[in-house]
Specification:
- The chain has one domain: Alpha-Beta Plaits.
- About 35% of the residues lie in helices and about 20% in strands.
- The protein has seven helices and four strands; from the N terminus they run E-H-H-E-H-H-E-H-H-E-H.
- The protein has a four-stranded antiparallel beta sheet, with helices on both faces.
- The termini are close together.
């Protein structure tokens, strides 16, 4: 099973609503390693790079206004099949459609203000991690609890 890294953003609504701790806890409790963390203000330029595939969409102006409105927290989450599993933990894009038990399903009732972003594939994860972190800001380590989170052959 692939040991992967994925970029997670706790968006402005998450910071403003004081939900950062709760959401970080979900990833820690699941057994993932948090290997990088940074608070920053997204600029319009960074927003356009990050959301390059959405720049021409009608909702992009609103998305840029939202994502640049207040600081965010960027994280790198690492673990087995982290890219797929983290996306599933987030739930569907719209908080109104996301299943109960997912982060968006439990805490969001909006399509735009959906609290969290996570990379949607290997290529996106590598690209997005590079947008937010320099290599020396990433700290890979083996938590002493690892043997209690998975078998040796997983
Ligand atoms: P995210 O997973 O970060 O990827 C793109 C973001 O654009 C998405 O979460 C939402 O915040 C936002 N988004 C996606 N679709 C729409 C939409 N139809 N209208 C408004 N915002 C959207």
């Amino acid at each position: 099973m692939p040991f992967e890294r994925t970029l997670v953003l706790l968006k402005p609504d998450c910071v403003q609503r004081r939900l950062m701790g709760k959401i970080i806890s979900r990833f820690e409790e699941k057994g993932f390693n948090l290997i990088a963390m940074k608070m920053l203000q997204v600029t319009p330029d960074l927003a356009k790079q990050h959301y390059a595939e959405h720049v021409s969409k009608p909702f992009y102006p609103g998305l840029e206004k939202f994502i640049t409105a207040s600081p965010i927290l960027a994280l790198i989450v690492e673990g087995l099949e982290a890219i797929r599993v983290v996306r599933e933990m987030l739930g569907a894009t719209s908080g109104l459609k996301a299943a109960p038990g997912t982060i968006r399903g439990d805490f969001s009732s909006s399509r735009q203000m959906n609290l969290v972003h996570a990379s949607d594939g290997l290529e996106a994860a590598a690209r997005e991690i590079g947008l937010y972190f320099r290599p020396q800001e990433i700290f890979s380590y083996s938590p002493t609890l690892t043997p209690w989170f998975k078998a040796d052959d997983e």
